[in-house]
Amino acid sequence: MRLFAIYGYSLTPYIIATILYVIPFTLTRWLMPMAAGAISMYFIFKEVKDLIEDKMHEDKQKFLAIGGYLVVSHLVFVLTLRLYLLN
Q1: Would you state the pLDDT for residue 52?
Q2: Which of 13, 48, 53, 56 could be a cystine partner for 36, CB 3.0 to 4.6 Å?
Q3: Spans of all domains in the chain
Q4: Distance CA 23, CA 14 (A)
């Protein structure tokens, strides 16, 4: 249940990004979702890092695989948001 709360709170930078999305510059329209995604990813990683490291302190490859999956899935979310919803 804690992971759902972490993920939910990590989506708050997108509220600010969508408000600033009304600025009619192409560069700004790409930077706002990317900045929100980076802030959101940092928050998720910061909150989940200790939890995952405690569980997998012996197997660093597994930790890196889960971290990589998290980063890639979040990047896909940000690009989907930018290309399909904020177009």
Answers
A1: 74
A2: 13
A3: 2-85
A4: 15
